[in-house]
Amino acid sequence: MRFRVTALTSVAVLSILVLGAARADADGAVTFNYAGRPQFFTVPAGVSSVQVDAVGGGGGGGGAFGGEVPGGAGGETVATIPVAAGDVLEVTVGGRGGDGAVTAGLALGGRGGFNGGGPGGSAGSPQTTDISSAGAGGGGGASDVRRCGTGLSSRVVVAAGGGGGGTVTAPPNAVGGAGGGTSGAAGANGVAGSSTGGGGGTAVADGTVGDDAGTFGTGISGLPGFGGAGAGETGDTAALGGGGGGGGAGLFGGGGGGGVAAGDTSGSGAGGGGGSGYAESIATAVTFNPGVNAAVGRVVLTYTTGSGSSGLSPCPQSPGGDGYGLAAADGGVFAFGSAPFEGSAGNSHLTAPATVIAGTPSGLGYFLATRGGAVLPFGDAEAWGSAAGLPLKQPVVGMAVTRDGGGYWLVAADGGVFTYGDAAFFGSAAGKPLDKPVVGMAATPDGAGYWLVASDGGVFTEGDANFLGSAAPFRLDQPVIGMTSPA
User: Fold this and answer.
1) Are the C-beta atoms of 240 and 267 separated by less than 8 Å?
2) Which helix (H) or strand (E) holds 50?
3) pTM of the model as a whole
4) Sequence-distant (≥ 6) Cβ neighbours of residue 200 within 8 angstroms
5) Buried b (16+ CB within 10 A) or exposed e, 9-22
6) I want to staple 143 with a disulfide (CB 3.0 to 4.6 A). Which of 29, 159, 371, 445 is the partner?
7) What are the tens digits of pLDDT across the range 176-219?
8) Whole-number Å distance between alpha carbons of 197 and 220
9) Closest to 225 (Cα-Cα) out of 448, 461, 465
């Protein structure tokens, strides 16, 4: 896995804007539409405050035929935030949750919307001529603005996503909860109370999961920044059934909705909870409008030049420039160009060889991981735990760091995934009949999923990672040894 120091320059910002990620209006307003990745805005000289009008993504619909049970609408947050000239604001626009649908004979839950939406719960083999068993909708992604960093702790405004719709019923049963407001709405229960809706995220806590047991996937509560996964159906052969809706993302994510219990002959999956909205404490003119948007999100920044100084210091800049670091199996680290040297394990007499080096988001540190699962931090990297004490069946071969540097994932050659800090678990390839061992991993831009790659080029997706192809069908001269994804 390669070590990379990422530098954001004014040229890079201009190229993003020119490519259509944002539209600048003559009156000092910039509109950011959905792009499926973070976008950036540099505060002009003479600007001390920016009004943010952010709208979160709507939850997907549940049902066998593409969304008969509606998801909750995303919320809107309007706030004026103080800034300093030259600040680079990271703007992330939330996606809409995917609809549950029957695909290749399987009732699959919809994917979570970009930027933290929880996936909808899946079900068993459906009857394709009716809605007897169905997948639930994914939760909507949050739209947010971040200052002085890229992690969750740098968010200054958040517009929440709506929860995904449940399954096999008619509203108001099983509909997804609306995105907040300072609190998201709970998802509606399944018909006749057959399953429990996910709780809405609040200003201080995650939304709770509904009924969490499911043969086709266990539901989970929300997390900071992420909606919980909807529970899967428990695998009965009743006339009705289905999974629960995914939770909407937000400051705190909504919980996943419950799935249908075994033996229930007339139940339906419940809706996912909506996420919570947020504006930093020093923001002014704050307004929350819950449940206003059923589509992808949007963010509009409005500013006026010549408004004096906010008194804020400009955000510190990362090192920048051209550079990279190399790691050897004995733990030695070699820095070139502008990449910082923050130490190495070359004289530490490692009990197992180093296999991975991964940089922190700031570019001011890095991690080394060994075959035995030990994690060694350097610079501003923080150790959140390791797999060194676990009875690993296969060696650790890959690592990915979360957007805020507050956690990381490790992957072993058998596809097992281990999470630490604020890294969320979205699944693994452990127990699957792999043709070749896993050799690496990469996280999605919003941190709500990851890809695993095997030495034959096979690619496995978890969370909101999309399958875009693999090298498995190719006749490779040599095995694949790793993977990377755009920052």
Assistant:
1) yes
2) strand 49-55
3) 0.69
4) 163, 177, 180, 183, 184, 185, 186, 207, 254, 255, 273, 274, 275, 276
5) eeeebeebbeeebb
6) 159
7) 999 999 999 999 998 776 789 999 999 999 999 987 555 455 78
8) 12
9) 448
